[in-house]
Amino acid sequence: MPNSLIAARDRFAARHPEQRIVLGGREWGYVEAGRSGPALLLIPGTLGRGDILWQQIDALEGRARIVAVTYPGSGGIAEWADDLAELCSRLGLKHVAVLGSSLGGYLAQYFAAEYPHIVERLIAANTLHVVAGIAERPPYSSDLNHAPIEELRAGFGRGLGAWRDAHPEQTELVDLLMAEVGGRISEPELRARLNALKHGPELPPLGLPRERIATIESADDPLIPPPMREAVRTRLNPSVAYRFEWGGHFPYVARPELYTALLEEQLGLAATHDSWGEGELRAR
């Protein structure tokens, strides 16, 4: 039976093919959509290219200017933050709201700290606040530069398979992610993403006022445990802390309408979704 999520993503990718650009000597990919309205920079996690946020881009592109990036095959958090600043300059984006998820959330926090004159709003989603100790945990405990790529991909596959067994209703989501880690994300890109957190710098102090900061988390996120979620909120002191009662580590795919609704709120756009959903919590 065809996977409707993969089919929808592929239709989006056909309409919005990924562009390539060299920044700081590294080749990035990016998807650009929309020509007017508030600027939104989307930074995915380890298991997605820029178009993994296609549902939000589709819903917002008529009302916002959106750039969603795909990581290069080299560099790390500090270098990537500099690259993103250069990307914004080249695209004429003087001020942006930045949403980063997981790895992207860590990068977004670093970027916002280093370039507060560019980052108008920070939305840190399903992410972490420190990388201390991460090198002792799989897959980061592997030799990420020399371990067979099949082993690294298989490790992600085992974790995703366990999530599918526990949540069979999300089989299509798991298959989408398996396709990403199975080859749609190239070997150099996957190694660079893992190394970026394993060797990531400590986050600099963040100077944004709290009214320009929001966080997103999921109660059932298997990768970001409750103490880490609390630590992220404590560090960032957000004006709004969104919490999905379910959605796992990828609520932007699993709960697309609600995710779009919170982005509308953060960007000051008229809502197209009538409610936050039964059992959905939104804390201020």
Automatic annotation (TrEMBL):
<feature type="domain" description="AB hydrolase-1">
    <location>
        <begin position="38"/>
        <end position="136"/>
    </location>
</feature>
<dbReference type="InterPro" id="IPR000073">
    <property type="entry name" value="AB_hydrolase_1"/>
</dbReference>
<keyword id="KW-0963">Cytoplasm</keyword>
<dbReference type="Pfam" id="PF00561">
    <property type="entry name" value="Abhydrolase_1"/>
</dbReference>
<keyword id="KW-0378">Hydrolase</keyword>
<dbReference type="GO" id="GO:0016787">
    <property type="term" value="F:hydrolase activity"/>
</dbReference>
<dbReference type="InterPro" id="IPR026151">
    <property type="entry name" value="Maspardin"/>
</dbReference>
<protein>
    <recommendedName>
        <fullName>Maspardin</fullName>
    </recommendedName>
</protein>
<dbReference type="InterPro" id="IPR029058">
    <property type="entry name" value="AB_hydrolase_fold"/>
</dbReference>
